[in-house]
Amino acid sequence: MAKIKHNNFIDTVDEMLSTAKKEGTIHLYAEDKILRGRTIQINGKQMSHFATTSYLGLEYDHRLKDAAISAITKYGTQFPLSKTYISHPLYQELETKIEAMYGVPGIVTKNSTLGHFAVIPTAIRDEDAVLLDHQVHWSVQNACQLLKLRGIPVEMIRHNNLQMLEDKIKELSSKCKKIWYMADGVYSMFGDYAPIAELLQLCKKYAQLHLYFDDVHGMSWKGKNGTGYVLDILKELPENILIVGTLSKTFGASGAVFMTSDTKLRERIKNFGGPLTFSAQLEPASVAAASASADIHLSTEIILLQEELSQKIGYFNSLIKATSLPMVAPNNSPVFFLGTAMPLTAYRLVQRLFNEGYFVNPGLYPAVPVKNSGIRITVSRNNQREDIKGLVQALEYHFPKALEETSNTLHKVSIAFGIAEILQKKEKLIPQSSLVIQYETSIKQIDKQTWNRLLGRQSTFDWDGLYFLEDAFKNSTDPENNWSFHYYIISDATNVPLLATFFTFGLWKDDMLAPESVSQQLEEKRIRDPFYLTSKVLGMGSLFTEGNHCYLNKAHPLSENAIALLLEQIEMLHQNLNADMLVLRDFDEDVALNRIFHNHGFVKINMPETCIIQNVGWNTMEEFTSTLSARSKKHFTKEILPFEKAFDIVIKQQLTADELAQGYQLYKNVKNNNYAVNTFTYSIEVFKKMVANPHWEFILLHLKDNQESQNESPLVGILFCYKNSGRTYVPSLIGMDYTVPKKLSLYRQLLFQGIKRAKELGYKRIDFGITATFEKRKLGAKVIPKVAYIQAKDNFSMEFMGTLQTK
Description:
Aminopeptidase; Aspartate Aminotransferase, domain 2
């Protein structure tokens, strides 16, 4: 759907992780008096530890601990000076050993995150460009935000998609000097690898291509001298490749190391690399521990440690292969991901494993797409064979139980991750509900009275409104305006409706709710490719309607069962339609719904606020202005009412061909000038259907001209208004001539005429829709916050738009 705006994104993540905290799966505290790596104590329970990222367990090695203790005794707890001026006595020894490990000098930083902030802005020149792998670590993506401020192109490709990478290289090759591709060597959630051999072939094909690898999860357990997965493939470091390793995690100490064989670049980074200049250096204890670890890495002992871990990884893999457990990316790295799809299933499985004495981490949004939740399992050298066997046995027993108690199935998990389904011995079916569901693909198959009683008093989705929408958008020759319709009414055994809603399936622009500057950039690309960055969306309601699209009888004891049944049905429809995204939209904030939708794998986002005038009960202009605030009243009497006489106002039930053509052009003026909600432009055929439909009328504003008759005065504004059978007036679309002098307040005048017309018809409510809330509030509209819940196959579009420059 849309890129989540920053504050909304933070709120979304906060809500997701707050739920995980309530479920007792994150924000925990270790209670051990002594840590040795094999087990960890939480809430009084000793558990086998399968969540560490220190795969060799070197942080417990006495040589590292003794070195750290000695360093504190000799040099204190810190050396509070910038490394630009002077390094403490242990640094030179560590840097010498790092050079011996890699064969080239390295740059030691406080940690990898600060290191990225030091290296990336220095290494990337203004004439360069950056391409990010969709799953490259957050710290790399965040550091690249600084490049955008300098106007450097920063774009994103789908994970390990070499064809998309090559296409982007071709696109940028004539504009940029160097093109940097940034990726992880080993990815931290699924444990899969960067396709290094294929990337090297691309480097041969395109001399501009440079590679930047964050290999912190490949460090120590792989490669000569434990220099990591990437260098294990490369063997030596060419000038066009920069590698980031870590001195923490598997290395057992603290800090990070950046390796490049480009001497000039290395010196430039050391001379002025942001945090390298202005941040404190690593503490003596950390440097001493890292130096002791480097000794191990430079000895033959590292080979033995790597082999010991490799055998345990192999043992884990051999046990997993004999089960039906859906491991997402089977590999020989220490990182494994067991897919659960739904967050709720992940919570339940983690809790069950905790109770069995196994500590693992849930893999949740935003680290993974919300419907790609699961369990991250890491195998370390500290795990014993009996621990590994016990964990696999516990997984094999509890995974089906967790699926069953959360109404999930292995089939759903396989679909969510796009992996081959492994048949379980016997997968229990979800118990059949006592509820009755009516599913139709046309409003004509729904009882008119029933529909209108449940949902028919708002917007353009009463029965007649939906009849119009089907006529206008079904079987359209325009792909972007061709929708299918899906209706659901769920009732109890006595035929009492619990839930009613409808969905449409069609193309949406991924930037629909993105900042306007993002949409402007994308629209430039859509001149050549009209469907660039669009998705097939199964969305509640439609892009033409807004309001509460879902009737829910919350007082009924089976209301949550009805929601669960609806989610079950639309998930199947989503799969059958091969939709990219599922959207439930225009809900009021509701704690219970938040919980239900979150647990079923939806992310909540804020929608644009909707505007409603709920009581058109006034009879005179004086009474109308008395409903406004003092400030709005002043605004209305000075800036709107006096200019009404500048226009000839005509209300028509039908338009002539010429009026339709003019009105359509005015609509396009507004559409092309407003990216606040970026949707496709409706074809003129939709407007022809309006003209032929008795439920639509049109408010036309002509600019008065003393030298012309009314019939000849230009049409400068139009409201396309729907008359809802529930006595609601709906100014759905607007068209304007932007050459009209601003002092005449054409937009406000159109809104005012809509209000007057609703009163004239005796309607009690006006649905003013979304956007321009400031202007609508001035005319007495109530502004109501709305939220939506989205579920996407992946986060690519959202994160890609995050790389675009915003103003």
